[in-house]
Amino acid sequence: MELDLSLGDSSRSCVFMEKSHEASNQFGFGFNTTTLSIGQVTTKQSDQHQHEETTKEKHKHNSHLEDQEAANEYHISTSHKADNNTSLLQLDFLSHTPFVAPINALPLQSFPWNPPPFENAVGSCPRGLDMNMLPVAVAVAVEDEAEEVAGLSSSSPNSTTSSFQRGSSSRASDEDESGGSTRKKLRLSKEQSNFLEESFKEHNILNPKQKLGLAKQLHLRPRQVEVWFQNRRARTKLKQTEVDCEYLKKCCETLKEENRRLHKELQELRTLKTSNTFSMHLPATTLTMCPSCENVSTNSNSTTNNEPTTSKFQHGKPRF
DNA sequence: AAGCGGCGTTACTTTACCTCA
DNA sequence: TGTGAGGTAAAGTAACGCCGC
Length: 320
Description:
The chain is mainly alpha-helical. The chain has a domain at 190-276: Arc Repressor Mutant, subunit A (Orthogonal Bundle), CATH 1.10.10. It has eleven helices and four strands. It has helices spanning 18-26, 56-61, 63-71, 118-124, 136-150, 159-166, 170-175, 190-202, 208-218, 222-280, 300-304; strands at residues 3-5, 14-16, 287-289, 296-298. The strands form two sheets. A two-stranded antiparallel sheet has the order 1-2. The radius of gyration is 37 Å and the shape is rod-shaped. The relative contact order is 0.12. The structure holds a DNA duplex.
């Protein structure tokens, strides 16, 4: 298994060959994937809708029409990825979320939880509608109607915000009686989050059709799905950076230790070399030769004790 | 020019922890 | 001493606005 680490551009990823495996085990990363890099996803979206709208706001307010159109075309598939999306990996760094059924095990046309009837949704929200629980077409219709009542222009950049002020999560709306002008952030349900998570594993960038299809299935607005994927990509990138940083730190420590070890080894080799060099320059008089067999031997005392052999001649007593 | 993704930021929610009556 | 309420910091995340491609 190779550990492919990259910071951003996967085309320039560096591969830690031999040590990566043991490193990942040694450092307890515990990845189940074969690569760590987040691929630089190239998306051309050849099948992208040619929207006639000229602004995002117009796009938002026509989203319900696109929802209808996409409903017949969108399918979530586990057998093949989106056409032009290339992804080196699907890493789930947020593994704290419990695993749910694979996406292909879920019904395609209906989200696996029953959205309450419209009346119930209204009834559960004293101050407004739970946008999570409303069918998208109804939600958008209510949104538009409310904006008309409120006198908001359709091109208002706060149109999305205003809808969320009305359509906060049930938990928040139950408690919020103040009706302040600040935006209200809805909380996606566990089921919605899990479903989006599974979709993200399939393709971390959506084309418009996929976006609309997901939005319809989850009873969210396309903009919400889009934002969720943007945030999810950001989280993935952040986690990846943290993991990379941690791994590089470990690598740095390992290399430092290796460097220290090599320095020590080098020092020992130098010492040894100095010692050998010295013995190579021993005076010839320290060598003894057996006259009969002509075997040459050195003086054992001088070699074993590293004692300068010249001292043996200080007494003027050659060994012969 | 429009659309979209990345990025930084804001606003809000949730959770854990602490203090105090 | 145990407990519940209230405050607060930190973490998580939905949403926004800007910019570049």
